[in-house]
Specification:
Helix content: 40-55%
Oligomer: single chain
Distance between the termini: 84 Å
Strand content: 15-25%
Largest sheet: 6 strands, mixed
Number of strands: 11
InterPro entries: BUG (IPR005064), Bug_dom1 (IPR042100)
CATH superfamily of the largest domain: Bordetella uptake gene, domain 1
CATH class of the largest domain: Alpha Beta
Family: Belongs to the UPF0065 (bug) family.
Pfam families: TctC (PF03401)
Protein name: Bug family tripartite tricarboxylate transporter substrate binding protein
Shape: elongated
Keywords: Signal
């Protein structure tokens, strides 16, 4: 009995020793200080939501204070500058949408960052599908109907966007290239006025984030022609993908990523990527994302960096081919 008890005590000590030494150097470094999640846009919306989700998760995991710093201005550049200049120890992180990383470098003649050199890609966080919608008064029921009408009378159809160079503007330009049609672009200062004119029938079409237009699709005020994603979305399962609708090559969901300052140690970035995945796959967080029309997207460090470079090259071709410039 004494021998057995001694063995149990020894096993417990070994287990405790293993647990005590299980924490990696990266985890120890991350547990040493508070976190600041920089969201370069105002409170509300997907960037703010994701920043708060990641901050909450990191704070609980490492027992540290974790704050969200909303730093809007200059199309997101003010917040990016804060992170660029931060100490590269994994405690100041950037939550950012795709366009700031993959469109602005080409679109803005004086873009003040080199994304490859100024930041370390940590992880893709989440995505939301975009959808091509039309006013029911157009009579268009499918992408095939749209292409037929556009080819019959080039530039007779127009599409709205929240602004020149926005991801939704470029989705429209990519559609024109892939479908071999010409449509007029009508730029607005934000999504609300663009959507209002499509709802009113002033402009017949627009590409939009699905969560923004979903209530109008359900009420019949808008008609969805296709989603710009690789698969159909559970939120609108009857809406085909662009590929299914006959126009391949248009897989352009809106996505959001997590970056750190250049110089952040590789093991710290990789640990943060694992932490982000763990946080975003928790059932309660998944439900929170779903309510915002988002799903988590697991793409980490090197793979995430490659994705940024690939999308930057793709949008650069569209911007240059269409001679798109900032006003």
């Amino acid at each position: 009995m004494i021998v057995r008890r001694s063995l149990l005590v020894a096993c417990a000590l070994i287990a405790a020793s293993v647990t005590a030494h299980a924490q990696t150097a990266a985890e120890k470094a991350l547990a040493a200080d508070k976190f600041t999640l920089v969201a370069p846009f105002p409170p509300g919306g997907p960037i703010d939501t994701l920043a708060r989700i990641i901050a909450d998760g990191l704070g609980k995991r490492y027992g540290q204070v974790a704050l969200v710093d909303n730093a809007p201005g200059a199309a997101g550049n003010i917040g990016m500058e804060k992170v660029k200049k931060a100490k590269p120890d994994g405690h100041t992180l950037l939550v950012i949408p795709a366009g700031n990383l993959t469109i602005n470098p080409t679109l803005m003649p004086k873009f003040p960052f080199n994304v490859d050199k100024d930041f370390v890609p940590v992880a893709m966080l989440a995505k939301t599908p975009n959808v091509l919608v039309t006013h029911p008064g157009t009579g268009l029921k499918s992408v095939a109907d749209l292409i037929k009408a556009a080819k019959a009378k080039p530039d007779s159809l127009s599409y709205a966007s929240p602004g020149i160079g926005s991801g939704l503007h470029l989705a429209g330009e990519l559609f024109k290239d892939q479908a071999k049609v010409e449509m007029l672009h009508v730029a607005y200062k934000g999504t609300p006025p663009a959507l209002n004119d499509v709802l009113g029938g002033t402009v017949p079409l627009m590409f939009s984030n699905l969560p923004t237009v979903l209530p109008h699709l359900k009420s019949g005020k808008l008609v969805a022609l296709a989603v710009t994603d690789s698969t159909r979305t559970p939120s609108a399962p009857d809406v085909p993908t662009m590929t299914e609708a006959g126009v391949p090559g248009i897989v352009v969901p809106s996505w959001y990523g997590l970056l750190a300052p250049a110089g952040t140690p590789t093991d710290v970035a990789e640990q943060l990527a694992r932490d982000a995945q763990d946080i975003l796959t928790q059932p309660a967080v998944r439900e929170q994302l779903k309510a915002q029309g988002m799903t988590e997207w697991n793409l980490q460090t090197g793979a995430f960096g490659a994705h940024i470079r690939d999308e930057t090259a793709r949008w650069a071709k569209v911007i240059k081919a269409r001679n798109i410039t900032m006003e």
